[in-house]
Amino acid sequence: MNSNVNMTNEEYSSYVDTKAKNSPIVKNIIWAFLVGGLICTIGQLITNLFMYLGCSKDDSTMICTISLIFIGAFLTAINVYAKIGQHAGAGSIVPITGFSNSIVAPAIEFKTEGYVLGIGANMFKIAGPVLVYGTTASVIIGFIYWLITMFI
Amino acid sequence: MDMCMELLKVFLTGGIICSIGQILIDKTKLTPARILVIFVTMGVILTFLGIYAPIVEFGKAGATVPISGFGYALGKGVMEAVDEMGFLGIFVGGIKSCAAGIAAAIIFGFLASLFAKPTSK
After folding, report:
1. Which of residues 68-107 of A touch B (CB under 8 A)?
2. Which of A16, A107, A131, B104 is buried deepest, with most CB atoms within 10 A?
3. What is the tally of structural domains in chain B?
4. Which residues, other chains included, contact A138 with Cβ-Cβ below 8 Å and sequence gap of 6+?
5. What is the mean pLDDT of chain A?
6. Structural domain of residue B86, as residue ranges?
7. Residue B121, domain member (yes or no)
8. Is there a domain that residue B120 lies in?
9. pLDDT tens, position by position, B76-105
10. Chain B window 64-103: which residues touch A at a Cβ cutoff of 8 Å?
11. What ipTM does this complex have?
């Protein structure tokens, strides 16, 4: 699109929109890809380390999950995770470290409202829905799977 | 060399899954909480349909570390529990397979809230 002095207001605003929106979307996706990929790679390295040390594959995966949740919690507590998130977007939200962040950040933020209704109640503000729908989905497919195993 | 190839697959798989999340955020204005809910639910459904297991086979941590992998653990856990326990497995399997992650998130969240100070806004 050419920038010309005779553009109407509408033309100009759509021109601004194309300039303002497209490049950040591509940039956001690249950031999300790099940061998300990196967090997963760190997870694989942790898993490989514990398998090398003699843990079973399932145990190593579990240790990897716990470690990443710890890292996410720690980076949230020292206020670094929010800074990563400003660039990384979904790259820091979608990995399990983001799930950890979604629990730890409100726990810290609502500390001033007390231990029960502050920390206790707000911890699951975002993680709560994840567990509600995740568990619901698992019970539904569990039921369907049970029906299949019963009758087939 | 095998290890490098493995890590590259992990990086690509994890990167692509997170990119899908970013596209959803930018294009549909879904909030991060909704993205997480969609990803975990899709993880469960894709696991049931037998689509997620091959992705985990290929991308390993690249598929299990994203929150959709949480859904994979829920789905895989519930089906294994139904195989073992029958009907009761429907209620036990999902959360059991995610217990370590949930407990870790709760305890680290609680500890962090004891030691960290809220940031003033």
Report:
1. 68-70, 73-74, 76-79, 89-91, 93-96, 98-100, 102-104, 107
2. A107
3. 1
4. B44, B71, B74, B75, B77, B78, B93, B94, B95
5. 89
6. 2-115
7. no
8. no
9. 999 999 999 999 999 999 999 999 999 999
10. 64-71, 74-75, 77-79, 81-83, 86-87, 89-91, 93-95, 98, 100-102
11. 0.93
